[in-house]
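Backbone-to-sequence.
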């Protein structure tokens, strides 16, 4: 058992993942005798010194000394914990793992559904920000560029604009999602028997977990109205105490320590400036 994932599930993922195919997604792999070789993903080199052994499913780099199995490769490459590496590879292999700790009994498929709703919401918000001709969306674009977050930043960070007026709810309904699932994903609320967008007239910051899924949002008003920031409440896919905005990026660059800052925009500005 690791991070709420059973040994059985870990073994299933291990059996379904071929180390040569996995590495081939990151770097060219060549067969030499019974082994396979590639340039090491963890240090700069021109001739391959990283050996993949398909019989043991282990890898070892003779250049930098790194090595291990499929899980340690993902842990090191993505900068994630062992359970998250198992989840990443489970997703890749389309294996559903039953988790009993992280989701407090919530099934993997339920969490996947809520993530799907968040993902679709993020695309919708992003399209609104980038393409919507309304004065509100234009104001959101102006607001961001006025804060130094123009150029490629909205694309890089998948930023968005929430127009409200049930536009998101209608969009998600059109994609086949159910109202109660939208509420559970915390992108909709039920008021007086009607389902409405939870976020409106806000610039939207998607929060991505360390396995790359969008699990929540922070929304900032464009004017002085309150609350200045509205954030997703805890959901089966999102725990405030476990997720940190942009940790999915920062975890990959830990050599020089971390810079922790308070606001979404501070984080983005620091990343954009190369920190
Ligand atoms: Zn190496």
């Amino acid at each position: 058992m690791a991070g709420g994932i059973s040994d059985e599930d870990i073994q299933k993922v291990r059996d379904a993942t071929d180390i040569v195919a996995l590495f081939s997604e990151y770097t060219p792999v060549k067969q030499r005798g019974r082994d396979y070789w590639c340039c090491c993903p963890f240090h700069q080199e021109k001739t391959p010194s990283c050996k993949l052994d398909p019989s043991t499913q282990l890898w070892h780099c003779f250049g930098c000394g790194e090595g291990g199995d499929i899980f340690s490769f993902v842990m090191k490459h993505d900068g994630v914990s062992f359970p998250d590496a198992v989840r990443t590879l489970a997703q890749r292999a389309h294996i559903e793992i039953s988790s009993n700790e992280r989701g407090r009994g919530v099934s993997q498929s339920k969490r996947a559904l809520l993530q799907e709703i968040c993902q679709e919401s993020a695309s919708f918000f992003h399209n609104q920000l980038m393409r919507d001709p309304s004065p509100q969306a234009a104001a959101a674009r102006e607001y961001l560029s006025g804060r130094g977050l123009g150029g490629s930043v909205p694309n890089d960070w998948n930023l968005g604009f929430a127009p409200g007026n049930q536009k998101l709810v209608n969009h998600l309904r059109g994609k086949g999602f159910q109202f109660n699932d939208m509420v559970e994903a915390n992108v909709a609320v039920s008021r007086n028997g009607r389902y409405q967008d939870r976020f409106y007239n806000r610039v939207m910051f998607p929060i991505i977990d360390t396995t790359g899924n969008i699990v929540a949002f922070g929304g900032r008003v464009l004017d002085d109205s309150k609350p200045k920031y509205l954030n997703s409440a805890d959901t089966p896919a999102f725990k405030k105490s476990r997720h940190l905005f942009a940790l999915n990026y920062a975890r990959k660059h830990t050599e020089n320590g971390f810079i922790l800052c308070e606001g979404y925009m501070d984080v983005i500005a620091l990343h954009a400036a190369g920190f």
